[in-house]
Write a structure and sequence with these properties.
The chain has a three-stranded antiparallel sheet with strand order 2-1-3, with helices on one face. It starts with a strand and ends with a helix. Helix content is 46%, strand content 16%. By secondary structure, the protein is α+β, with helices and mostly antiparallel strands. It has two helices and three strands, in the order ββαβα. The longest helix is centred in the C-terminal third of the chain and has 20 residues. The chain has one domain: Ribosomal protein L9, N-terminal domain (Ribosomal Protein L9, domain 1, 3-Layer(aba) Sandwich).
Length: 61
Amino acid sequence: MQVILIQDVNNLGGVNELVTVKNGYGRNFLIPSKLAIEASPSNMKMMEEKKKQQVKKNLNY
């Protein structure tokens, strides 16, 4: 199962990172704890837009 991390998770990854986890870990822990969202096509587009906005924000400073 692929998920997009919303928050940093120890030993797994950082914010806005696409990671592959076991189905049970994603469905029973990460998603209910609001640490991740399912990697659907619409969520992938949203993640890419957030990354672009973050890059623009960093360039302006």
